[in-house]
TrEMBL record:
Protein name: Ferrochelatase
Protein family: Belongs to the ferrochelatase family.
KW Plastid (keyword) present: yes
Entry keyword annotation includes Disulfide bond: no
Pathway info: Porphyrin-containing compound metabolism; protoheme biosynthesis; protoheme from protoporphyrin-IX: step 1/1
Source organism (scientific name): Penstemon smallii
UniProt catalytic activity: heme b + 2 H(+) = protoporphyrin IX + Fe(2+)
Subcellular location field: Plastid, Chloroplast
PANTHER family: FERROCHELATASE (PTHR11108), FERROCHELATASE-1, CHLOROPLASTIC_MITOCHONDRIAL (PTHR11108:SF4)
Length: 467
């Protein structure tokens, strides 16, 4: 986590000027809406599904279109933007949301436990929620050996924290150069430094305005949505945090700076092929279960498709007209995931006679296990076996300067929209207070998991589905 360096600051922001930088590209989903989420069921849906248009008054809509050009959605009041004099004494924080990864092989199983214990990763029906943690224990133990193999192959741990820290300090430098001094906090969902640690640090540092920036270009319930839920839960009951003005950048896949940075990387990597025009551009995105999209309204698939369309459009303007395709990788467990699956498409392309292929990881902006192991090792081997002769892979954006500059612009654009979080509903508070019910459910869940662990037959069937 970045040490707090700035004391009380006088940001040299001209918000009116910054607002003119906003681009009217977000057609499907909002770029920005805030943490001021309400707790009735409709609004909850709004908070997690991110792309659904609910009740914005015309006046508020006009305001959003005029300022953020992200249309269709807003959760902040029109008077939220303060004048320059109001924010003159701000201490600005930027919270980078990311997934986190195990630092060592010993961390793999507890990391997996945290991941599978997340109700946004394994979405059990309400009635079965009590099974979440026992199930997470079981699945994490069963999956650990496979995951460990992967992490061992990339040096014994995830590179995610190192890269995210580098991105954090690069972002801080760019914002400083733009005369917007900030403290940047890394908030990982499943491993250190946890979101909770970052939030405590923000409180200790007396941050007065916060921008939340997920390091996922596209919004998914399972990634950005999950981290925002944790934040909301932490903020809503805290007397200080519930008053802190917060702006959340929900997704930024359509930002010009990001699209151009991706196109730069692709264009450069194509040049390595003997015949660049013949290489198929193969976008490989991390998958999510189909039910997220079809039942829960996850905008991830739509955003992914639009993102690829925009990248290809940008490439076309540069004269790059290669064939391209999109597939989804990294599925886990027995349910249906978004199709087509990367491994199946690779085999088909080989059979169809495609000889040159450029893999482009597109759902994440750092190198991680799924680029370094799954794509660079497993998929490359599969592609070569299937008849692909020339294989290339576009590196993750990491600290590419045009990309970091664009993130800095996104932060500046989001700053004026920060508003405080609303308080929780009674119903939610009651549900949280039901400690006895929770303990009974936990006991029952542990018992079920214990039975499963003791039954070799059940265990074998279960394992074959998980691995
Ligand atoms: C946009 C990116 C990601 C989505 C969407 C996503 C959904 C998702 N993931 C799992 C299960 C696992 N993910 C794992 C690692 C992992 N996932 C992402 C990104 C997204 N996940 C990243 C960047 C990483 C790697 C972190 C690192 O250490 O480098 C893992 C662990 C690795 C493994 O065993 O394969 C699991 C498990 C689910 C179930 C899911 C959606 C429901
Ligand atoms: Fe994942």
């Amino acid at each position: 986590m970045e040490a707090a360096t700035s004391s009380r600051i006088l940001p040299q922001l001209n918000f009116n000027q910054n607002l003119t930088l906003l681009r009217p590209q977000a057609k499907l989903t909002p770029t920005v809406f805030t943490l001021a989420l309400h707790s009735n069921s409709n609004d909850k849906k709004l908070s997690i599904a991110g792309g659904l248009s609910l009740s914005c008054s015309k006046q508020r809509k006009d305001f959003v279109q005029r300022t953020f050009c992200s249309a269709e959605m807003c959760t902040f009041p029109a008077d939220a933007i303060k004048s320059h004099s109001d924010i003159a004494e701000e201490k600005i924080g930027v919270m980078l949301l990311n997934l986190g990864g195990p630092d060592t092989l010993n961390d793999v199983q507890p990391f997996l436990f945290n991941l599978f214990a997340d109700p946004d990763i394994i979405r059990l029906p309400r009635l079965f929620r009590f099974l979440q943690r026992p199930l997470a224990q079981l699945i994490s133990v069963l999956r650990a050996s496979k995951s460990k193999e992967g992490y061992a192959a990339i040096g014994g741990g995830s590179p995610l924290l190192t890269i995210t820290n580098e991105q954090a300090s690069a972002l801080k430098s760019v914002l400083e150069a733009k005369e917007v001094p900030v403290d940047v906090y890394v908030a990982m969902r499943y491993w250190h430094p946890f979101t909770e640690e970052a939030v405590h640090q923000i409180k200790r540092d007396r941050i007065t305005r916060l921008v939340v920036l997920p390091l996922y270009p596209q919004y998914s319930i399972s990634t950005t949505g999950s981290s925002i839920r944790v934040l909301r839960d932490m903020f809503k009951d805290d007397p200080v945090l519930s008053r802190l003005p917060v702006a959340i950048i929900q997704s930024w896949y359509q930002r010009e700076g990001y699209i151009k940075s991706m196109a730069d990387l692709i264009e450069k990597e194509l040049q390595i092929f003997e015949n660049p025009k013949e290489a198929m551009i193969f976008f490989s995105a991390h998958g999510v279960p189909v039910s997220y999209v079809e039942d829960a309204g996850d905008p991830y698939k739509d955003q992914m498709e639009e993102c690829i369309f925009l990248i290809m459009q940008e490439l076309k303007t540069r004269g790059v007209k290669n064939d391209y395709t999109l597939a989804y990788q990294s599925r886990v467990g027995p349910v249906q995931w978004l199709k087509p699956y990367t491994d199946e498409v690779l085999v088909e392309l080989g059979q169809r006679g495609v000889k040159s292929l450029l893999a482009v990881p597109v759902s994440f902006v750092s190198e991680h296990i799924e680029t370094l192991e799954e794509i660079d090792m497993e998929y490359k081997e599969l592609a070569i076996e299937s008849g692909i002769v020339n294989w290339g892979r576009v590196p993750a954006l990491n600290c590419t300067s045009s990309f970091i500059t664009d993130l800095a612009d996104a932060v500046i654009e989001a700053l004026p929209s920060a508003v405080a979080i609303s308080t929780t509903s009674e119903a939610e508070a009651e549900a949280d207070d039901d400690v006895v019910g929770y303990a009974i459910k936990m006991l029952f869940g542990s018992f079920v998991a214990f039975i499963l662990l003791l039954s070799p037959k059940l265990m074998k069937a279960f394992k074959s589905q998980i691995l």
